[in-house]
Amino acid sequence: MKAIVKEAAKYAGISTGIALGIFCFVGMLFDLYYGGNFSLSGYQFTKMVIGCVLVGWGFGVPAAVYRKENLPMPIKIVIHMGTGCVIYTLVACKVGWVDPAAGIWQEIGMIAAQLAAAFLICFLFLLHYRREAKKMNERIQEMKKGKD
Known about the structure:
The chain is mostly helical. It is built from 4 helices and no strands. Helix 2 packs antiparallel against helix 3 (73-95) and helix 3 runs antiparallel to helix 4 (104-147). The longest helix is centred in the last third of the chain and has 44 residues, at 104-147. It starts with a helix and ends with a helix.
């Protein structure tokens, strides 16, 4: 149990860093797009930063499910990404990443783009860990051959 809590904290830290990094990058793009006149008022920036932290936790903490060896991988992904995407969508609507005044199709497009980014990040982590597992398996095979 202690190991899972430690792992969840580690994942929450990593995903919060990713969320804040993306937030800063997108904020920079908006600033460039608006010619240096991009501004937020009414504590909007603070709300968005807190939202980023919540999204980081929403994707990070459930990632600890991957330590459970008795669950099939598709179930792990549904738990991890389902929890993260629900939290992300709620936060996005609350802090203004998705503007209700923009119209339903623009809202759907924004949410779809943001969820696609989340799944892309998940896919990149999947590739990273598969590559790491392949290297470990190759190393084990080399060690076995050396003993023979």
